[in-house]
Design a protein that fits this description.
Length: 495
């Protein structure tokens, strides 16, 4: 085990001890717990580079989807305001023998849906739900009100820019399930990519009007693995079939797990430079601690103790955000603000566990024995594989002409902007457009740098780990520019 392993071990072990206290942060909590097991001394997790499993797209994989699209149409979600776009929700079977099915929620564009691209959004974990975070708390058209039973319309929903598909993946996450319970013990990056791919080819059969549409994948956090791995699987299968089975044009990942060594080093450097931990602690953790070894100097333990104390009373997913002080539902909905309520995870959990909501969503049709959770309690304990880096995949995409954007909310302390900068530096790309401020609504939305080969890096100013939750306007501008393939605006005036 190398240096990187040690750092991962420390940071993630510590986080898992106290993060349970903070609502709405479960996504990172799961990631941290997972990273701990990934790098422990006797780890069983395969950390070698990713390679796709070949999926022969024939009638064993693609099933008839006749009539299923109309069955999936959602008339109206409970407590939902009136809207003029279509919503669908339902299951796609990806393994008939095992009885494994993934749940999706799909919102068509608010206008010109026939022309708009198709965008798949994935959340991380491993094991966290894109319905919980992506759809209900970040970029979907609605937000759950504080009463836990009604919805409010979001002003900056991404379905102004695309037809947006949210997928709960892998099986065991959210409403997605397998009838073969041993499936939950064989999860991992490779199986997730293959299952997501099988989902997509079947979903496109159910919604054939999207088959030839420009297709993009975006996601955050541990989806820094899922998104590139699915993209690689798509490219690989297109190549092997010698035809465009899926018309993938680009990927975008935010506050993403990219390269464990730089991700970890960047975390401590970020926390020190943002005056959360001392420079001494960051330096000691980065240079003195060696967790491949059982015996570490006292200096290392002191640094860790300091670090635990320093971060334990703040929301590390958005270092300047208030905490959820009263997680009770309210009898009447509180007035919504542009920035998400820190207790929103509680509202979403209440809403998605309501029987009438599940019925409207066409979810939980097999009456699962456990509650719906934003991050799965059942799958990640036996995660089989997780490469230590996904940089080779990013290089592959650039070489194949895919658009690749990496964004970062600059107040996240879990996969901070410093980590992302270190990881991009590791890619050795030459600069095409030097670092510049980009504008949204008369203000700096963040900073951007464009690299030769087709990679754009963009920060989003004053956004935490879940960027669209904290800066919905800037996030919508970001996705629009990504999908249009246009540079982020260099001047205050909007083009
Ligand atoms: C649907 O509503 C949105 C915003 O409310 C509006 O911009 C759009 O033009 C409407 N589309 C149709 C087809 O009426
Ligand atoms: C799982 O089992 C239930 C109950 O037998 C069945 O209704 C359902 O269709 C099965 N799921 C899949 C994906 O085959
Ligand atoms: C791939 O398809 C193209 C166009 O259909 C054809 O010209 C080419 O020979 C095919 N290549 C292989 C390896 O089958
Ligand atoms: C960390 O400890 C292991 C086990 O004792 C040792 O093999 C390795 O060389 C050490 N690494 C560093 C960077 O000191
Ligand atoms: C939340 O609800 C519980 C149970 O009804 C109650 O005991 C508690 O005082 C409430 N908390 C706040 C901060 O109002
Ligand atoms: C599914 O439905 C059952 C029965 O209504 C309920 O007890 C369970 O919490 C639900 N589970 C999920 C994951 O939605
Ligand atoms: C990056 O570039 C440096 C200097 O040109 C070279 O030594 C190094 O091997 C390169 N690293 C990668 C990952 O390509």
């Amino acid at each position: 085990m190398g240096k990187s392993s040690c750092l991962a071990l420390i940071s993630f072990f510590i986080f898992s001890l106290f993060m349970a206290e903070i609502d709405g942060s479960k996504q990172g909590q799961v990631f941290n717990k997972f990273q701990k097991s990934k790098y422990k001394v006797d780890s069983q997790v395969d950390r070698s580079d990713f390679n796709a499993q070949e999926v022969v797209v024939d009638n064993h994989i693609v099933h008839s989807q006749k009539g299923l699209k109309e069955k999936d149409r959602i008339d109206k979600l409970p407590g939902q305001p009136q809207v003029n776009f279509s919503q669908y929700g339902g299951y796609v079977t990806i393994d008939k023998l095992a009885g494994r099915a993934l749940y999706y929620y799909f919102v068509e564009s608010q206008h010109s849906k026939e022309k708009m691209p198709l965008l798949l959004w994935l959340n991380g974990g491993p094991g966290c739900s894109s319905l919980a975070y992506g759809a209900m708390e970040e970029l979907g058209p609605f937000r759950v009100n504080s009463d836990g039973k009604t919805l409010a319309k979001k002003r900056y929903s991404w379905n102004y820019a695309a037809n947006v598909l949210f997928l709960e993946s892998p099986a065991g996450v959210g409403f997605s399930y397998s009838n073969k319970s041993s499936d939950y013990d064989t999860s991992g990056d490779r199986k997730t990519a293959t299952d997501n791919y099988k989902f997509l080819v079947n979903w496109l059969e159910r919604f054939p009007e999207y088959k030839k549409r420009d297709f993009y994948i975006a996601g955050e956090s541990y989806a820094g693995h899922y998104v590139p791995q699915l993209a690689h699987t798509i490219l690989d299968n297109n190549k092997k079939a010698n035809k465009t089975i899926i018309n993938l044009k680009g990927i975008m990942i935010g506050n993403a797990v990219i390269n464990d060594e730089t991700d970890n080093r960047g975390t401590f450097d970020y926390l020190a430079s943002h005056a959360i931990i001392s420079d001494q602690a960051a330096n000691d953790i980065n240079t003195v601690c060696n967790f491949s070894s059982d015996a570490n100097p006292i200096q290392c333990q002191t640094a860790i103790d300091e670090y635990v104390r320093d971060v334990s009373f703040i929301d590390i997913y958005n270092i300047y955000a208030p905490l959820c002080s009263n997680p009770n539902l309210t009898a009447l909905p509180k007035k919504n603000t542009i920035v998400i309520d820190p207790c929103s995870g509680v509202y979403t959990h209440a809403y998605l566990n309501r029987a009438n909501v599940q019925e409207a969503l066409h979810a939980n049709i097999t009456k699962l024995k456990y509650d719906w959770e934003s991050c799965s309690d059942i799958i990640f304990s036996k995660w089989g594989d997780s490469p230590s880096t996904i940089i080779p995949l990013l290089h592959e995409f650039l070489n194949n002409g895919l658009r690749v954007w990496i964004f970062s909310g600059d107040t996240d302390g879990v996969v901070p902007v410093t980590s992302t900068k270190y990881s991009i530096k590791k890619m050795n790309l030459s600069t095409k457009t030097a670092w510049y401020p980009w504008f949204f609504d008369g203000e700096v939305g963040g900073y951007a740098e464009v690299y030769n080969g087709g990679l754009t890096f963009a920060t989003v100013r004053e956004a935490g780990h879940e960027v669209p939750s904290y800066q919905p306007g800037r996030a919508l501008s970001l996705i629009m520019h990504f999908l249009n393939g246009t540079p982020l605006p260099t001047t205050k005036r909007q083009p």
